[in-house]
Design brief:
The protein is an alpha/beta fold. It folds into 2 domains: 48 residues; 252 residues, Alpha-Beta Complex (2-enoyl-CoA Hydratase, Chain A, domain 1), CATH 3.90.226.10. 50% of the residues lie in helices and 16% in strands. Strand 2 and strand 3 form a beta hairpin. It is found in: Cytoplasm. InterPro entries: Acetyl_CoA_COase_a_su (IPR001095), ClpP/crotonase-like_dom_sf (IPR029045), COA_CT_C (IPR011763).
């Protein structure tokens, strides 16, 4: 599976393969020609991925092969024990969470979980939580506060599930309660956008002390397609909307909403998962170290000040 903007690279790679087969079949030395094309591929790849448009970054953020929350947990944390259920209705597999050890320190880890295949996506509801998912997340956050454990959240969702049954069970109330209660938790909270951070469904795990984003992740109140449909009455103008919304990691870092960017390998996180896991682990270490310097009684005030600084106000 490839993106449209990768076609020039794919065409060159196909030529290289053809030359290799031809050289082998006819016992001809074409190493110079092959080396030339391989260097051209590297140049083209750097050129393309160094100048991605916001919409192209949206495509990468949504890519099904990007590492998921459970992959980050497995790579970064030790002794993860998953907890289930919200103690009201049931368990939502679109949200995973539990306790783990991070460099020997007990932490609570929570995140959106999408699938890596159609079957898994159906099981995980494409990473779009029902209200019981958010209530499960809040239950674990309250437990973390009780036992004085830092909270690490991984954000990766198109948004909260908009279906009739979700609304009947209190989707809006569940998200709103998460926002209110997260704002007042007395333990450090770090949230990391690893893919697509969509609307209130993402924000329900995003009220935090430190917000980090992967370079090709996005965080927005609405999808580019949705914005284009509303603003331009034409969903096909999604690329223009993506540019206008300022939804990329770099955009949010420049706006001082994100506290840091996590470097990705050329082409996206799926090209070198161990590299991304190491970068993510390093920034969590840094964030926890900085938050440990803030007194517990000052943490909520500092979080409040962080959000009050967001946005430009003109009278």
């Amino acid at each position: 599976m490839a993106f449209d903007f990768e076609l020039p690279i794919i065409e060159l790679e196909e030529k290289v393969e053809e030359l290799k087969k031809y050289a082998t079949k006819n016992k001809i030395d074409l190493s110079k020609e092959i080396t030339f094309l391989e260097k051209k591929i590297d140049v083209k790849r750097t050129e393309i991925y160094s100048n991605l448009t916001p919409w192209q970054q949206v495509e990468i953020a949504r890519f099904i092969e990007r590492p998921t929350t459970l992959e980050y947990i497995d790579a970064i944390f030790d002794d993860f024990t998953e907890f289930f259920g919200d103690r009201y209705y049931g368990d939502d597999k679109a949200i995973v969470g539990g306790i783990a050890s991070f460099n020997g320190q007990p932490v609570t880890v929570i995140g959106h979980q999408r699938g890596m295949s159609t079957k898994e996506n159906i099981e995980r509801n494409f990473g779009m939580p029902h209200p019981e998912g958010y209530r499960k997340a809040l239950r674990l956050m309250k437990q973390a506060e009780k036992f004085n454990r830092p909270i690490i959240c991984f954000i990766d969702t198109k948004g909260a599930y908009p279906g009739k049954e979700a609304e009947e069970r209190g989707q809006s109330e569940a998200i709103a309660k998460n926002l209110v209660d997260m704002a007042g938790l007395s333990v450090p909270i770090i949230s990391i956008v690893i893919g697509e951070g969509g609307s209130g469904g993402a924000l329900a795990l995003g009220v935090c002390d430190k917000l980090y984003m992967l370079e090709n992740s996005t965080y927005s109140v609405i999808s580019p397609e949705g914005a284009a449909s509303i603003l331009f009455k034409d969903g096909s103008l999604k690329e223009i909307a993506a540019e206008s919304l300022k939804i990329t990691g770099q955009d949010l870092y420049d706006l001082e909403i994100a506290d840091g960017l996590i470097k990705e390998p050329l082409g996206g996180a799926h090209h070198d998962k161990p590299f991304v896991f190491n970068e993510t682990k390093a920034i969590i270490e840094q964030g926890l170290k900085e938050l440990a310097k803030i007194k517990k009684e000052d943490l909520v005030d500092a979080r409040f000040d962080k959000y009050m600084k967001i946005g430009d106000f003109v009278e």
